[in-house]
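Internal QA ticket QA-208
Title: Verify multi-chain structure generation after dependency bump
Assignee: T.L.

Test input:
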Amino acid sequence: MLLAGNPNSGKTTLFNALTGARAKVGNYPGITVDRRSAKLDLEGGLGLEVVDLPGTYSLSARSAEEEVAAAAVLGLHEPVPAAVVVVVDASALRRGLYLAQQVVETGLPTVVALSMMDEARSAGIVIDAEELGRRLGAPCIPIVAPRREGLDALRAAIGDAVAKDADLPDVADIDLPEAATEKLEAIEAVVEDWLAPETLALRRAWARWALLSVGGDELPDIPEAVRVAVDEATREDDPGPLLIALRYERIDAFVDAAVTIEEGAPEVSITERVDRVILHPILGFALFAVVMALLFQGLFAWSDPAIGLVEDAIAALQNLVAGLMPEGPVKRLVVHGVIAGVGNVLVFVPQIALLFLFIGILEDSGYLARVAFVLDRLMGGVGLHGKAFVPMLSGFACAIPAVMATRTIESRRDRILTMMVVPLTSCSARLPVYVLIIAAVFSPDQGGFVLFAMYFLSVIAALGAAFVLRRTVLKGKKPPLVLELPPYRMPMGKNLALNTWERVRSFLVDAGTVILALTIVVWGLSSYPRDEGVAAEYAALRAEASQVIVESGALDDRLSELEGQETSAQLPYSFAATLGHAIEPVIEPLGFDWRIGVGIIGAFAAREVFVSTVGIVFGLAHADEESAPLRESLVAATWPDGRPLFTPLSGLSLMIFFVLASQCMSTLAVVKKETGGYRWPTFLFVYMTVLAYVVSFLVFQVGTAMGWGTG
Amino acid sequence: MSNAPATSSGARTLADVKVGAVAVITGVEGERPLAIRLMEMGLLPGTRVEVVRIAPLGDPMELRLRGFHLSIRRDEARGLAVEPE
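Actual output:
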């Protein structure tokens, strides 16, 4: 059974109420539209799988994403459903009935759930549901899903529909003029060859669907014969507009017959009153700034204690396991590879959960549509969708949740464009790198300005990249904005919690596994191969310490110190060091030597790892960005010929590299998941890395030639 | 898609309607996929549309029709020929 309905029609609330929210969330193959399904128990022990279709205004489709609803209802790639429940918002009846009318035309058993009946009643809308059902040809059941009103009646109606004993008169089909009918029959003939639909009604519905969907579309599965037939039919006297007009004529007749508006209903709705403030040119922007500041503050500050907790728990677990396992390669793999990798995944969860909670509130309340409305012009200037604002802002905290947040954007092209530029916004993991370098090579009174310049550069880079990509790689007509501004509603806690949990789970399962695997790989690169001589030397030192030091706290400290020293001593023998040396000729024109190269390789696990990796390279394990010894080591570091390694110019070049380069494998893992393939993450990695290289190269070379900040 | 050349002959389109005014659509022009999308959202010849407001930055516009609120850009509104109610 399918659950279809307009966006904001209360479909998800009904789905959760009907099925007890035990949804399985999967993916439609090749695209990132969630496929939510759950079991519905009907009377008589009948169990049905209910699929919650993506919200849509019409079955007509122009892209693979939009095709999901039509493919499910009309039975492409899968059998036709046993029944379709169309959720129609009773307070916006005419719009919802268009979809219901399309579904009824398929001849499949259909039930209409009239949702939001409480809102309709308070707006003075009185609906004769039985009369509406008789005319439409599908039973109409009034419901208020949050209060579970009408759910038993709806279940009974679904049971009747599935058993095909709904007690309804046959409703005549839409009365198209002969010329239009002939044109549609020509399309039906090719549909027959294509899909051989089970019934005449389905064949007719496919032909009508093709008429309104094919042509100037990005649909993947349409056979050439169907394209030719639709093109023939629409070249002159296109019957499409007539079909739509006749559907609406019918709907208007239903509504006139079945709906009365009570006298004394409020003239101006609450939503309209609220919008006078929220969409006010001045008040509206002020409120918007406050909401976005709250969101940003939440992502940055409120997630911090939870992130700290995750980090502490992982460190505690590492200590615990380290104490239990014998020394050796297995222990090192478990402690520094696997457990650290799990930590690398879990550390994103607080921000993802918070962001999706916020977005859920913004979306369900109706505010997100207003954000898109207000910002469409501004974002549209560089080719971004109005709804790209929230992901872009979130990117300053972390690109992982921000990339996931692009799901609120319906058009695939707009979504991908946003995903391609979000990683340029300066995420919080870059901050420790800036702090370390600024402290090492700039004076305190320059520091603030340099830091600001890095954030400014990231904004310019993100907007500039959007501008360029929209005109090159993601070229194409700007998709039209046809955006409903739904009535304001109170978000429901249960829906928010479920949605947040589903996002977190999807991250853990799909992206988390990749991040874990890559963390282990990066750890392996920087830990192996090892030099046996060094290993033996430190084994001897450990044994000696164990004998000499009796007090256990002091022994632990000494062992931890030895471990850090050994890590530093082993590093020159590792693959990472070999790689660092190998790339030195490439990165030297940027002002970086092999040691910085090793840091950059380590930063691929997570940018802030640069700090600890560079610490290890300079023999200072456990260093952080505030560490004075590390800063001093950086200042003292030189090239073999004695020139200082870190100058204001090479520091600037390195920071610019960190602003622009795609160094975060977790971002790439999430982009792969969200775009459904390797194409876009590969593109992202290549374009950002090339951009970073070129800009750092120019800055360092021009700066050196001009003699800026070299000493 | 009534074939009156509303946009080319300088007749009014929905983009020219003042905030607060109500107009009746007389034709849906423009590229077929967009025209069909607008019509399926209820913007059909004969439909009464009120321009509720323009976004603070001058685009897009908010419309009220058939009991709900819809936002489209001026570019899209230019394809909708209208006459005053």
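Spot checks passed. Residues 1-10 of chain B have pLDDT under 50 and may be disordered.
Status: verified.
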